[in-house]
Amino acid sequence: MITKTIQIQEITVDELADKVADKLLDKIKHYLDDLHTNESDVYLTRQETADFLKINITTLWHWTNKGKIKSYGIGNRRYYNKQEIIALLKKNELR
Length: 95
Description:
Blueprint: H1 13-40, E1 43-44, H2 46-53, H3 57-66, E2 72-74, E3 77-81, H4 82-91
Antiparallel strand pairs: 1-3, 2-3
Protein name: Helix-turn-helix domain-containing protein
Domain Helix-turn-helix: 43-92
Pfam family, one: HTH_17
């Protein structure tokens, strides 16, 4: 085990505690923002969705047409919300 020594000068214990608390709070907020944003805003292409579900692209097309999975169109491309797919898997609604 490696031991390190830190020497602090010209700062009170309360000031040091406040600085550490502020920095830690910023890190936690940033982590939670990333966690929330990343999961809800991830959209997958058709191929990525098929790979994620381990199904054929034709099966994905059938499920989309039957309304089992919702797709979002941008131009002539289709995208699928990853969080919605995970929710469907948890409910066991995909077959």
